[in-house]
Design the sequence.
């Protein structure tokens, strides 16, 4: 069992829909990252969370430390949001990141 | 700042050949790492370094060597390439700020071993 589980693995939606991607992890963490990777592209860090909620444009990331769960939301989704979204956690007192397998999001016009 | 740079972007090797993937960062980050990304596997840590002169193995170190002679550079060496090393390789650096590590990724190197 992967220590970091993402769901769903694949998600296809229509332009304008509200998108939610989930990430669960197994032990205490110092931080959680949401990353974005476009097809054939590099990896961009979207958010780094240790508690609460962060918002950047149409993207919102939340984390519940007690439940060991984080969500990434996209409002008013657009085809350019099509990418793989990766959750990564840094265990408490560790420098290394552990990655989820990613969620492939496709937004159709 | 150029951030994290990687060269080359693409590379094709024959089995048994050796090569070095270059990684550099100009942000004075102490922590650098190499990952490989394979379909269905997510990103896996190959080697990492917590500062110049210090390296350690990650999750999948076999077949790879690293060195860290300067803060800026962290090259990854494949001594004798194998088809199982066909992958996309990402270099990353991070810095401890405000109690957490901020992570920066390079653009990746797509390696094919035939």
Sequence:
């Amino acid at each position: 069992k992967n220590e970091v589980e993402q769901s769903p693995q694949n998600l296809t939606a229509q332009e304008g829909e509200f998108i939610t991607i989930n990430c669960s992890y197994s032990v205490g963490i110092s931080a959680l990252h949401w990353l974005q990777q476009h097809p054939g592209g590099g990896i961009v860090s979207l958010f780094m969370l240790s508690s609460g909620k962060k918002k950047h444009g149409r993207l919102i990331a939340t984390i519940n430390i007690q439940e060991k769960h984080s969500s990434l939301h996209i409002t008013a989704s657009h085809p350019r949001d099509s990418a793989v979204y990766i959750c990564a956690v840094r265990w408490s007192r560790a420098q290394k990141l552990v990655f989820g397998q990613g969620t492939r999001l496709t937004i159709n016009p | 700042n150029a951030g994290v740079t990687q060269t080359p972007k693409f590379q094709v090797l024959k089995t048994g050949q050796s090569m070095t993937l270059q990684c550099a960062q100009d942000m004075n980050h102490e922590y650098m790492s190499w990952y490989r990304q394979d379909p269905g596997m997510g990103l896996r840590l190959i080697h990492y370094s917590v500062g110049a002169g210090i390296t350690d193995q990650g999750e999948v170190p076999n077949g790879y060597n690293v060195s860290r002679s300067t803060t800026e550079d962290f090259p990854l060496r494949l001594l004798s390439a194998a088809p199982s090393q066909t992958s996309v390789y990402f270099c990353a650096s991070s810095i401890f700020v405000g109690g957490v590590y901020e992570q920066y990724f390079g653009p990746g190197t797509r390696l094919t071993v035939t």
About this structure: The mean pLDDT of chain A is 91.
